[in-house]
Write a structure and sequence with these properties.
With 243 residues, the protein is α+β, with helices and mostly antiparallel strands. 20% of the residues lie in helices and 28% in strands. Bound molecules: uracil (URA).
Length: 243
């Protein structure tokens, strides 16, 4: 059981100071398991108790993990003076001071992005040594043939001489357009686009649909997000050797 003081938890989860957290409790804005909270020093079981502030219930766990369906046009950064970021899309009840995207998608790439405040988790997803495959669906200018697939699957060399680790590739069509599903375990700059470019092809649209065995929730519209369940978190690090 992990116990934390109520005022500390509110400060952490609601992006307010400890002083403001105590004021919220004093003002009657806080409930614990639907009961009005009165003591700032009350100990909360972060695995079991449910805390609400002004009607918003938040998770009391140490870290937060959010699945976002990233829309086009937002950047994978925490803040930016001019452009909207993925963190701007997170609603207040899930927002914490130190959340950031675990990995990057290009501004025009859509799909699955995990937003978290857990640095070790993000490192594990991003580092190629941990072999977490990310699956992308790419709509292409030209169909990929067997020769292209062989090159991608044996580790293609990009235009600047960078060698990629072997990918897994399937060819198909989307609304009659040539497309491919590609799984890679690295995150080099514009990697998927550059891999197809090295074959003389061009990525017209790119969407990430899976990280490890965790699939993008089809119920999430572009721009929508929700917290991941414990089971889903495990899927991120589950190798899907089944295909
Ligand atoms: N590869 C790319 O080219 N772009 C992305 O956003 C992700 C992978």
């Amino acid at each position: 059981m992990d116990l934390k003081r109520l005022d500390k938890l509110i400060a952490l989860n609601c992006n307010v100071s400890r002083k403001d957290a105590r004021k919220l409790i004093k003002d009657g804005a806080v409930t614990v398991n639907s009961r009005l909270a009165v003591r700032a020093e009350e100990l909360i079981d972060t695995d079991a108790d449910e805390v609400s502030v002004n009607g918003y219930t938040f998770t009391a766990k140490d870290h937060i993990y959010i699945m976002l369906n990233k829309p086009q046009g937002v950047i994978s950064a925490t803040r930016d003076p001019a452009k909207p970021t993925v963190v701007d899309l997170i609603p207040d009840n899930l927002k914490r001071r130190s959340i950031f995207p675990a990995g990057r998608l290009d501004r025009d790439t859509t799909g699955l992005l995990i937003i978290t405040d857990d640095g070790a988790f993000a490192h594990r997803i991003m580092s190629p040594t941990h072999h977490v495959f990310k699956t992308y669906q790419a709509v292409l200018e030209f169909p990929v043939d067997e020769n292209d697939i062989r090159k991608l699957e044996s580790g293609i060399t990009l235009g600047d001489g960078t060698k990629c680790l072997p990918a897994k590739v399937k060819s198909f069509t989307v609304d009659g357009l040539p497309a491919a599903e590609i799984k890679i375990r690295e995150g080099k700059y514009h990697q998927v686009k550059r891999m197809f470019f090295a074959l003389g092809n061009k990525v017209l649209q790119l969407k990430r649909i899976q990280i490890g065995s965790l699939k993008l929730d089809p119920e999430l519209q572009p721009g929508e997000c929700r917290e991941l369940t414990a089971e889903e978190l495990e899927l991120v690090f589950t190798d899907e050797n089944q295909d």
